[in-house]
Amino acid sequence: MVKTRLAQELIDIPGDVDVAVDYNAVRVKGPLGEIRQDFSHARVNLRLENDRVIVEAPWPDKKRAATVGTIRSHIQNMMTGVAKGFTVKLKIVFAHFPVSVKVQDDRVIIENFQGEQRSRRARIHGDVKIAVEGDDISVQGINLEHVTQTAANIQQATKIKKKDPRVFLDGIYVFEKSEGM
Fold first, then answer.
1. What is the CATH number of the domain that holds 70?
2. What is the value of pTM for the model shown?
3. Segment 36-90, tens digit of pLDDT
4. N- to C-terminal Cα separation, the chain
5. Which residue in 24, 93, 99, 145 could disulfide with 39, CB within 3.0 to 4.6 Å?
């Protein structure tokens, strides 16, 4: 079996984005804001060269070679986030009891879900903006991980347990993911 000598991925830096690499900590700054992320846990090397970020791992095994691609995707998402941003849209679905959703501090409060007396809560991660307009919820931000985790928390908060999901369709569901704010 022949072992690969070098796993390497190149990421071109767009003109409106500034990237700094300090050891394995990456800072990406763009028109919408700044994101910092530490990749020191991954056994890969990061460096800047000619308006490119280079992610590499010498003599990688299968797992480290896969990690190189994963880190490349994270950095690419950071660049897209500070340049365009990310939006996830959710739809509020109910059959009988009208559900009300509001934002308080770092939580989304879901009231009257299936006629329940207690409100359900979902945590908001990071610097994410949430807008509730009728039966639609819009989650926007520059960090893809925070935006999608917040949307997942909202969807999970309305998960129905111990009932047939084909019959009881009430809940809040993700219906669109897009780049741009």
1. 3.90.930.12
2. 0.90
3. 999 999 989 999 998 999 999 998 888 999 999 999 999 999 999 999 999 999 9
4. 48
5. 24
